[in-house]
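Hey, can you fold this one?
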Amino acid sequence: MPVYVHPIAADNDQLRQYVQFGINLYKDNPYYVPPLISDDMGTLSPDKNPAFDYCEAQSFMAFRNGEPVGTITAIINKAANEKNGRSQLRFGFVEFIDDTEVVDELFAAAEEWGRQRGMTEIVGPMGFSDMDYEGMLIEGFDEMGTMATIYNPPYYPAHMERMGFVKEVDWVEYRIAVPDAVPEKYSRIAEIIARKYNLSVKKYTSRSKIKREYGRAIFELVNEAYAGLYGFVPLTDRQIDHYIEMYIGVLRLEDVTLVVDGAGTLVALGIAMPSLSQALRKSGGKMLPFGWYHLLRAISGHTDVVDLLLVAVKPEYQSKGVNAMVFNDLIPRFHANGYKYAESNVELEGNENVQKQWEYFERRQHRRRRAFIKPIS
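Sure. Predicted structure:
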């Protein structure tokens, strides 16, 4: 039967069907971690995602004989294109059955949409901003993912190569053993750096207080620290407000470490969270009727894996050992909470400063993912 690709309207019914397709596709896969359906629907909705202030997007869904067989979202990040001087179309939220016609028709629809708007190349998978999913899995197909990353089977990158896509950039991920104690060298560095630069660790027990005092500063620091990374564009004020409400309200604050200078200015941070991977699998991406219970148990610490969501250091303090202060505080808390492993989540393969911070820990690089690129002819 022929394949038909249709643009998806940004309404609840169509977006729910769109997000649900991927969850259904992987229902028997033991390594797939579903998203929260409501979160992905919000990301794809212009009314809810402030990234649409500078992005244009269109989602497409492929059908055969009336049944969904694939999805793709075409995104033009105008701020990124202006920053980089390129005319790039991003693709993201891509899912498809292992079928050449389905894949070709999906990408043809996305590419034509971008071509009509003057785009000259297509790259992905990437999202609207650096806070979204990025990178197609090319190694580690038998490793369970995290809530912040994409899972896909090996036939995905095979289709990318078949269509003429090539490597643009790779990210790597590490599984890190949580030590019984802070490595001695880390402790010494943390103590020296604190004295030398008059820095101290700041902790909170009140979400409302950390929001009020450092909510904006956290994401402003992310803007500074990540400015030179591939694909990153600064978060806008509306995005910062959005992420303050979205994330800080659900964090376990003992897993949040802020490093401040003598004036109270935020210079570094580490934000971790108990892994929600197993809880999301049990919930099927739904909060109701019982998904909230599994997620609440995970957030409360009923897991032996912790996800490292954000580690950021102010540019003038990078390569000076300030991150040692972050982990000098977090590691004893990880150990006390029963975490045996930490997931690094994605790191650019060429980001040596980030990867050097793991050199004193037992670790293995267990996943690799790739952004693919090709011209739009």
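The first strand starts at residue 3 and ends at 8. Let me know if you want another pass with a different chain boundary.
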